[in-house]
Structure formats: C-alpha cells, structure tokens
Amino acid sequence: MRIFFYFFNAKLFNLILLSIWFFTTRNILNYGIFFNIIIAVFQMAQALDTTASKVDENELLTALPIMIPILLTFLLLHRIIKYKSKNDILNEEIEQEIQEVLTAINALEEHEDTLVAELISLRENQSNLSKAAYQKELLRIKAAIERKIATD
After folding, report:
1. How far apart are CA 46 and CA 147, in angstroms?
2. Burial (CB count within 10 angstroms: exposed 0-12, middle 13-18, buried 19+), residue 58
3. Global pTM value
4. Of 2, 5, 31, 103, most Cβ neighbours within 10 A?
5. Phi-psi map region of 50: left, alpha, beta (phi>0 left; psi -120 to 50 alpha)
6. What pLDDT digit, counting tens, does each position of 92-140 carry?
7. Greatest CA separation for the chain
8. In this predicted model, what pLDDT tens digit does every residue of 21-46 receive, in sequence order?
9. Is 50 helix (H, G, I), strand (E, B) or coil?
10. What is the rounded distance in angstroms from the CA atom of residue 60 to the CA atom of residue 64?
C-alpha cells in the first residue's frame, strides 16, 4: 500500500506542477506540456486500475490516439486566435489613426470657420475702422491663414 501511495502522490505532484506550467506558459511549448499531462493522467488511471499488472509500460501507445486529435485541435485554435488577435490589434490602430485624422480635419474646419467669420465681420465693420486699423486686421488674418497653410 505504501508503494501505491508513493507512486500515486509522485504522479499527482507531477500533474500539479505540469498543470501550473501549462497554464502559465503562453507559447507553443504549451502543447508539449499538454502531452506530459495526458501521460501523467493515464499513469494515474493505470495505478488506480487493479486489473493491470504492469504500470508505466504502454501509456504513450494508449495515449497517442487521444493526444494527436487534441494536439491538432489546439494547434488550429492557436493559429486562429493568433490571427484574430493580430487582426484586432491592426483594426484598433487603424481606427485610432482615422479618429486622429478626423479630429485634425474638424479642428482645421473650425479654425477656417473662425477666420472666415473674422474676415466677414471685418468687412462689415470696415466703415467703423480707420484705413490703417483695417489693413492691420487684414494683415493679421492673412498671417493666420498663412500659418494654417504652413502647418498643413
């Protein structure tokens, strides 16, 4: 009975450590760890099976028909998730650039509207201003337009 508990606890400890490693690893090494987890589970199941006389003899051959489809499924899911995550990142970057461009366009349009409004109000108030003051305001608006053109 001691040998059984020793063997079972060793496999359980191995399974716990492999599981922790499996859930904390984020690369393709995950699938190699997953194979070891499957083998450890088969070894534990064989230890609990009282009809088997030899332990640790054919676990790999018994586990292969189960591991291969699971591995292929995980590899396919890995590629799909990797593609989708790259696609989502690119979409977010494109959306951010579009928002920045739209914000810049809106700011330019608002600035143009204020310059046009200033020019219209200056023309309406031309009779109230002296010639020098009117020319000074025209030069100020011209300089603002030139700055806007230079920054674009």
Report:
1. 81
2. exposed
3. 0.37
4. 31
5. alpha
6. 888 888 888 778 777 777 777 787 788 888 888 877 878 888 888 888 8
7. 113
8. 888 877 767 777 887 888 788 777 77
9. coil
10. 6
